[in-house]
UniProtKB/TrEMBL annotation, chain B:
Coiled coil: none annotated. This is Chemotaxis protein CheW. The keyword Cytoplasm applies. GO terms for cellular component: cytosol. It is found in: Cytoplasm. It comes from Halomonas chromatireducens. Residues 16-156 form the CheW-like domain. SMART domains: CheW. Keywords: Chemotaxis, Cytoplasm. GO terms for biological process: chemotaxis; signal transduction.
Length: 788, 164
């Protein structure tokens, strides 16, 4: 077992934590922030930091660290929230997501972006906390904004008498951070010397700033308990403490309950990175690790939580539960701790440990409990592959069951009643099973809707509009692969509604509407479909303007078009009625992409709009991609499936409606439209198919906005089919989108309407005349001549 | 993946490897038994349009769509018939499942390393790149096929290349 095995767990948890963080940030009331929410945000940052540290994701760890410190100040009320600060926090959250993605893809995050966000946070901290503390007149002597050049500030009361020469000792600080810290300290004064290793590193600093100032600077990089500041009186820092620092301050017993051996080893290794593992012993039921480390309990827990559950873990002071063998050492701990107490402790510092401890405690219970009793006990994480496998197997079961059904259907109802009863029971159970299994893939729309408060907030902010977002039907469920694909088109529609739909506040007031616009996102089931609606109470679509714009773009329109047809114009490529192009929308790319995406998912878009009252855009999607409503057709001896959503009608072509064009092409006149004709047997080289055009059946299909007539031998029927990917074991086949398994166990190909048209054209271009002209000659000679 | 490690382990432990022997016309070929998932009859194959002639189509293997390749056509054998003896060897290569049509499966042979001779440079039909060697067994000669290389090669057109 390797630590990288835990990467995925970490990435998933971190992603969830970030999503929580964003939700809380958006909910935050800037004027009266809820402490619980602030704590939750802080905890999320903290947990991510812990994991990032464990796995060596430096940039992520550092960013979360700075972020966490800021949040810490926020929840203690030292940093007053403002909208722009929350925006910065949100930006930080985005950056964390980016970093996470980078690590997940095995890369390193963008260094520039990382430095920029760190700087932004540092800046914010220096400005805001400095001001805040000054204004608030805190009891403790104050961390001022760190001066670039050390100013001759009057000595603070708590400042050591010694003229500014101090030893800053860093405990368990990695090399990168050390360098950073030394640089930072260099800005405060003069660094006389620095030496040591990761465990203990001494920096001798000559500076006129107070200890507090130094501390304030360092706190953005490392934890308060990772460093000490003492005046350099004796000049022999080594003797002053050494050993006891570690032993005293951090000796703890970490007890693991019911942890398997592999995990134990891993944990001991992990702990070794945090400090020194003094001893470890025990068995699976209870395993004690004595750890000398200066990191906080919380950090230890954060690291371990990625491997074991909170309730499998107990951390206690060495003295409390230490095994007998450790008693002597543990006993010495308090004394040692006293030795190393910070000589320059200020009132604030003295007050800090308890506060922090309390906060840690709060964080622990809050995080520990939901973990143990919350969602984890009621849900499990399963890979999609496993679910798909179950779905496959159930599909097989259904096929077998229908085969059996056919076999027993001609049996005697009386003589074999027991078997027939059993069969009908089997059928019912199999259907129920299929339904339950399909529901595993379903996730609530909340997954999609939850990202819109952010989108709306930012877009509204940019546009200077006031908008209230209402979501309905968040619990409506949809196939996971679809929820992921619906996000982009939906975001586009929402942006569009915000930009073009809802008016500016003044215009709204003038029109007698409430100042604040309302955008509603709703989802509901209807039969086998889900309806997702984006509703705004804005100005609505303007029929005249749409028509005028369409004429300008050379689209074929007439005043007689129905409203529905006019509204659909907004999906035409390059079509935008926005008076000005904004950075939110209006470039005219997009709506056509939205439509294409949705059609790609087997759905369609409807628009309802009323001038002055608003617009309702409705997306209709099938509930799942795993099952398709198909029409089975026969060509030659082969069976194919057409997606029913693409089929408009079918008819038997009459002689008089077929016209030859430019030698090889044939068009079919359906009502007033001439449609290109594609013969399936030609595109797919099916042998023994009907070649006489008037004997075939023309299925009028529509794909990507293009209609054509597909010639097939026979229509077999409609049925729901389970969609199987061809590319899993083979490759993409032109003109075919996927495959399915029929009731008799054989494979049928599902035709790709758009691809088939393309394929047929491509084949016509390279075709050898002698092979293909046959059917067409028959047509030109006999059919056409007789008809004219 | 696992199978490769298992194969390596077996080789290290026993130094002997087991091969499934099959026939194409008069010739005997062998594949590493650990690549073989199962053997089944040739039935219910759905033709795929515009594919090379040796790709017979796809079939349903317990819910999984599996392409079927006829090695006899690929190797330009004179007689290609489908009958009761025609078998499909279902193999696992690089996380894919592929069925290969052969004239028959005879037995499973254990070969020690000294029974496997390096393959000489072959003609055009079967490049020696796709062979792991020739197995000699008394008076029989087995052509040991490197099924991974063969089925994932460009000329088999089974795997979509990124460049395409």
């Amino acid at each position: 077992m390797d630590i990288t095995d835990f990467y995925d767990t970490f990435f998933e948890e971190a992603e969830e934590l970030l999503a929580d963080m964003e939700r809380y940030l958006l909910e935050l009331d800037v004027d009266e922030p809820d402490t619980e929410e602030l704590n939750a945000i802080f905890r999320a940052a903290h947990s991510i930091k812990g994991g990032a540290g464990t796995f060596g994701f430096d940039a992520l760890q550092k960013t979360t660290h700075l972020f966490e410190n800021l949040l810490d100040h926020t929840r203690k009320g030292e940093l007053a929230l403002r909208r722009d600060i929350v925006d910065t926090f949100l930006e930080t959250k985005d950056m964390l997501s980016d970093q996470l993605d980078a690590y997940r893809n095995g890369g390193e995050p963008d260094q520039e972006a990382f430095e920029r966000i760190c700087q932004t946070l540092q800046q914010l901290a220096l400005e805001e906390i400095g001001q805040d503390l000054d204004g608030g007149g805190a009891a403790a002597p104050k961390a001022e904004p760190v001066p670039e050049v050390a100013p001759a500030t009057p000595p603070e009361p708590a400042k050591p008498a010694n003229d500014g020469q101090r030893i800053v000792t860093l405990l368990n600080v990695g090399e990168k951070d050390r360098q950073l810290l030394v640089e930072e300290l260099g800005q405060l004064g003069e660094v006389l010397s620095h030496q040591g290793d990761e465990q203990r590193y001494d920096v001798v600093l000559a500076s006129s700033d107070s200890d507090d100032d130094i501390e304030a600077v360092m706190c953005f990089i490392i934890e308060a308990d990772q460093f000490q500041i003492r005046p350099a009186v004796s000049g022999q820092p080594e003797e002053a403490d050494g050993e006891p620092v570690v032993a005293g301050e951090g000796q703890r017993v970490v007890t693991l309950f019911n942890v398997g051996e592999k995990d134990r080893q891993l944990l001991v290794e992990e702990l070794g990175q945090l400090g020194e593992v003094v001893s470890s012993q025990g068995d699976e039921a209870r395993y004690d690790v004595v750890l000398a480390s200066s990191v906080s309990n919380d950090d230890i827990e954060a690291v371990m939580c990625f491997i074991v559950d909170a309730d499998q873990l107990q951390i206690s002071k060495a003295g409390e539960v230490g095994p007998p063998a450790e008693a002597a050492k543990a006993g010495a701990a308090p004394v040692a701790a006293a030795n190393t107490a910070k000589p320059a402790a200020t009132p604030e510092q003295a007050a800090k440990p308890p506060v922090k401890a309390a906060a840690d405690e709060g964080a622990r219970t809050a995080r520990g409990k939901p973990k143990a009793k919350g969602p984890e006990t009621s849900s499990i994480r399963v890979s999609v592959d496993k679910v798909d496998q179950i779905i496959n197997l159930v599909g097989e079961l259904i096929i077998t069951q229908s085969m059996l059904d056919q076999t027993v259907s001609d049996m005697d109802a009386v003589a074999d009643s027991a078997l027939l009863n059993g069969m009908s029971l089997l059928q019912r159970n199999a259907r129920d099973l299929q339904e339950s299994v399909m529901s595993i893939r379903m996730i609530p729309m909340d997954f999609v809707f939850s990202r819109f408060p952010r989108v709306v907030r930012e877009t509204a902010g940019k546009l200077g509009k006031e908008i209230e977002l209402v979501t309905e039907g968040e619990s409506t469920e949809l196939d996971k692969s679809l929820t992921e694909r619906i996000i982009d088109p939906l975001t586009h529609l929402v942006r569009n509604s915000l930009d073009h739909g809802i008016e500016m506040p003044e215009d709204r007031v003038a029109a007698g509407k409430p100042r604040t616009g309302r955008l509603t996102l709703s989802a509901q089931h209807q039969g086998g479909n889900i309806l997702i609606e984006v509703i705004d109470d804005g100005a609505g679509l303007n029929r005249d303007r749409l028509l005028a714009k369409a004429r300008e773009n050379g689209l074929p329109v007439s005043d007689a078009m129905s409203d529905d047809e006019v509204w659909q114009l907004i999906f035409a490529p390059g079509f935008s009625t926005a008076k000005a192009v904004t950075d939110v929308s209006g470039r005219g790319v997009g709506m056509d992409v939205v439509k294409r995406n949705i059609q790609g998912m087997g759905g369609h878009v409807e628009i309802m709009s009323k001038s002055g009252e608003g617009t309702r855009i409705r997306i209709v999607l099938p509930l799942t991609l795993a099952i398709l409503d198909g029409m089975s057709i026969k060509v030659g001896g082969e069976m194919f499936i057409l997606p029913l959503s693409a089929v408009l009608e079918s008819l038997q072509p009459a002689k008089g409606d077929l016209y030859a064009m430019a030698g090889d092409d044939v068009v079919l006149k359906v009502r007033d439209e001439y449609l290109p004709v594609v013969a399936v047997h030609e595109a797919l080289d099916v042998p023994d198919a009907k070649t006489k055009l008037t004997e075939t059946i023309a299925v009028i299909v529509q794909g990507e906005g293009r209609r054509y007539a597909l010639l097939v031998d026979d229509l077999v029927g409609q049925q729901q089919v389970v969609v199987k990917n061809l590319e899993t074991n083979y490759r993409k086949v032109p003109g075919v989108s996927a495959a399915t398994i029929l009731g008799d166990g054989s494979v049928a190909l599902i035709l790709d309407i758009t691809g088939l048209h393309r394929l047929s054209r491509a084949k016509k271009e390279v075709r050898r005349p002698e092979r293909t002209y046959q059917s067409l000659e028959a047509l030109t000679d006999k059919e056409l001549e007789t008809s004219s | 993946m696992n199978q490769t490690t298992e194969a390596a382990m077996t080789a290290a432990e026993a130094h002997n490897r087991e091969f499934l022997v099959f026939s194409l016309g008069e010739e005997e070929y062998a594949v590493d038994i650990l690549k073989v998932q199962e053997i089944r009859g040739y039935e219910n194959v759905t033709r795929i349009a515009n594919a090379p002639d040796f790709i017979k189509g796809v079939t349903n293997l317990r819910g999984v769509i599996v392409p079927i390749v006829d090695l006899r056509i690929k190797f330009h054998l004179d007689k290609v018939e489908y009958g009761g003896q025609t078998v499909v060897i279902v193999v696992n290569v690089e996380d894919r499942v592929v069925g290969i049509v052969v004239d028959g499966v005879s037995d499973v042979m254990t070969l020690s390393p000294d029974q496997i001779k390096p393959a000489p440079e072959f003609g055009v039909t079967l490049s020696s790149d796709f062979l792991s060697g020739l197995g000699s067994l008394e008076d029989r000669m087995l052509v040991i096929v490197d099924i991974d290389k063969l089925l994932t090669s460009d000329e088999m057109e089974l795997v979509e290349r990124v460049a395409e």
